[in-house]
């Protein structure tokens, strides 16, 4: 088993001079060296075979004692020096000061086939950034992050990956509902991989402390390793960097909207500087289409992180990043132009993306309007987003209105009680859609094939994750395995898994862990 270890991040930035692993403010440093806690009896539940292969490792390698020790934090690779990163962040619209890797420990960087993988354990014990928390993670939230990282990857959306999930054999105390009833849960550790885990918050913490020297070191490092094509000089370089982060962030949110993913905690410490989806906590997938839906109970009041607000929040977060980078750029109009551009680009690309989901070319205004109006209609009546977009691909040029209505009807949660008024709206919309597809040169099959590449058939609905967790708590990992395999090919028909192509079951409508999730993890 080959390791090709690097430590570019720790070489580029100064380390915390204090070695003691105790909660505290860490100034003038990018990270603190810290040793993971030894779990009492680690057990590998699952590993990502294709990701392991990307690292140059076989399935046998992944089942070795050595990898179990390494990915559970039981042993440290002799050529590595694990560390926790220092970052800050704006949480729910307010500056929260220092946050940092409170329960994440970076092991090393491993390079294979020119790809850099930063290895990070989540739940391997406290660090100087743990504040008054324990640095641990429970099986429940670890399964959610493990499955979702890989589901998002296989949807072709940029994300941090998850290489392994290991139970620690230790118990962890959590108050799931935050209602004063804590209980013991199984502890677990996932190993996450990404080219880098740097967040907006890493820049913000230096800017907030007027530590311009380290701000510059961090930005230069990020550009050199992850945006190497940016070769402009000084202030222009940093502006070009900000432009690209802004573009990547826009691309990411557009993808999330397309597949109905709601992150749930888009604080600036959860925004990757590489435009990756990162930190899967109380996320969710839109089931009945509702732009005001947020899966996060902590956000139930303000609904800041609701599905329909993700682009606005991303822009707000980019404003915070612009403020942090300002000392290196010192050009307010130029930064404002980038932010304005985010807005205008979104206004153009969002309706186009929606039209593409319907197999329409999005060049004609009609197409975009039809696609936008559809989102209002979907929201009027409980309609399953994933099922709707997948079914409407079966519409054909020779069909009449009622045929199409029949095709989409399994997407409605309450078809029996649909009012005549709503039915009429659907009729009108379908009439216009039929005109659009009849006027298109694409064949029905071509359109359907294109649509199915944009509209997943299978997404990780919260009730599905809940079933996998429930079984895993009883040491039955069949659902976990099945969902993992299912979600590897989310755009494929996979008739053998048709049972997962259904609306959320009634029992899951109000169940904790299915409809709403707390941040407790
Ligand atoms: P999150 O909301 O999960 O993005 O976490 C926000 C901050 O809280 C980060 O700095 C985390 O490292 C920290 N944090 C969350 N849970 C724990 C925990 N169990 N122990 C230590 N730090 C934690
Ligand atoms: Mg976080």
Residue fraction in strands? 5-15%
Low-pLDDT ranges? none
Give the structural class.
alpha+beta
Oligomer: single chain
Count every helix, treating DSSP H or I runs of 4 or more residues as helices.
17
Provide the gyration radius in Å: 24 Å
Mean residue pLDDT: 97
Task: Give the helix proportion (percent range).
Answer: 40-55%
**Biggest sheet statistics:** 6 strands, antiparallel
Q: Which ligands are bound?
A: adenosine monophosphate, magnesium ion
Number of DSSP E strands: 12
Give a brief outline of the structure.
The protein has helices at residues 8-12, 49-54, 59-62, 65-71, 139-154, 200-208, 212-226, 234-259, 310-329, 332-357, 365-380, 385-392, 401-408, 420-438, 444-454, 462-473, 478-486, and strands at 5-6, 31-33, 43-47, 83-85, 88-91, 94-98, 104-112, 115-122, 161-174, 183-194, 261-262, 284-285.
Blueprint (SSEs and pairs):
Elements: E1 5-6, H1 8-12, E2 31-33, E3 43-47, H2 49-54, H3 59-62, H4 65-71, E4 83-85, E5 88-91, E6 94-98, E7 104-112, E8 115-122, H5 139-154, E9 161-174, E10 183-194, H6 200-208, H7 212-226, H8 234-259, E11 261-262, E12 284-285, H9 310-329, H10 332-357, H11 365-380, H12 385-392, H13 401-408, H14 420-438, H15 444-454, H16 462-473, H17 478-486
Antiparallel strand pairs: 1-7, 2-4, 3-9, 5-6, 7-8, 8-10, 9-10, 11-12
Helix pairs in contact: 5-16, 6-7, 6-9, 8-9, 8-10, 9-10, 10-11, 11-14, 13-14, 16-17
Bound molecules: adenosine monophosphate and magnesium ion (MG).
């Amino acid at each position: 088993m080959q390791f090709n270890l690097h430590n570019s991040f720790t070489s580029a930035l100064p380390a915390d001079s204090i070695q003691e692993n105790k909660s505290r403010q860490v100034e003038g440093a990018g990270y603190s060296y810290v040793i993971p806690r030894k779990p009492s009896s680690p057990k590998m539940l699952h590993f990502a075979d294709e990701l392991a292969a990307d690292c140059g490792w076989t399935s046998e390698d992944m089942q070795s004692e050595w990898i179990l020790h390494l990915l559970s934090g039981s042993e440290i690779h002799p050529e590595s020096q694990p560390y926790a990163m220092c970052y800050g962040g704006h949480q729910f619209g307010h500056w929260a000061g220092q946050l940092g890797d409170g329960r994440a420990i970076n092991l090393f960087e491993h390079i294979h086939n020119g790809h850099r993988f930063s290895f990070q354990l989540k739940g391997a014990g406290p660090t100087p950034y743990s504040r008054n928390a324990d640095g641990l993670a429970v099986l429940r939230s670890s399964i959610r992050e493990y499955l979702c990282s890989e589901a998002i990857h296989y949807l072709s959306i940029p994300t941090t990956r998850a290489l392994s999930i290991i139970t620690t054999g230790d118990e962890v105390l959590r108050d799931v509902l935050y209602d004063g009833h804590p209980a013991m849960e199984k502890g677990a550790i996932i190993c996450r991989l990404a080219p880098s885990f740097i967040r907006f918050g890493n820049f913000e913490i230096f800017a907030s402390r007027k530590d311009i020297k380290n701000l510059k070191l961090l930005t230069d490092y990020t550009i050199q390793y992850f945006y190497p094509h940016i070769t402009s000089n000084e202030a222009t370089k940093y502006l070009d960097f900000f432009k690209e982060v802004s573009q990547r962030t826009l691309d990411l949110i557009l993808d999330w909207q397309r597949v109905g993913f709601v992150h749930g905690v888009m604080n600036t410490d959860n925004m990757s500087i590489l435009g990756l989806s990162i930190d899967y906590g109380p996320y969710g997938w839109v089931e009945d289409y509702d732009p005001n839906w947020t899966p996060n109970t902590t956000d139930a009041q303000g609904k800041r992180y609701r599905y329909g607000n993700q682009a606005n929040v991303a822009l707000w977060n980019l404003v915070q990043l612009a403020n942090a980078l300002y000392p290196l750029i010192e050009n307010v109009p130029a930064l404002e132009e980038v932010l304005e551009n985010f807005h205008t680009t979104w206004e153009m690309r969002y309706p186009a993306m929606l039209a593409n989901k319907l197999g329409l070319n999005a060049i004609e205004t009609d197409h975009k309007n039809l696609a936008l109006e559809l989102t209002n209609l979907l929201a009027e009546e409980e309609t399953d987003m994933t099922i709707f977009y997948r079914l409407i691909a079966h519409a054909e040029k020779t069909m009449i209105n009622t045929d199409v209505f029949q095709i989409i009807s399994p997407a409605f949660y309450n078809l029996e009680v649909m009012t005549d008024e709503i039915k009429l709206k659907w009729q009108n919309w379908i009439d216009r859609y039929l005109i659009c597809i009849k006027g298109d040169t694409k064949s029905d099959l071509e359109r359907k094939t294109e649509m199915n590449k944009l509209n997943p058939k299978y997404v990780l609905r919260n009730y599905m994750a809940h079933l996998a967790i429930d079984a895993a708590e009883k040491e039955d990992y069949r659902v976990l395995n099945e969902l993992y395999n299912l979600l590897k090919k989310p755009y494929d028909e996979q008739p053998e898994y048709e049972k997962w192509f259904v609306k959320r079951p009634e029992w899951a409508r109000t169940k904790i862990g299915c409809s709403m999730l707390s941040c407790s993890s």
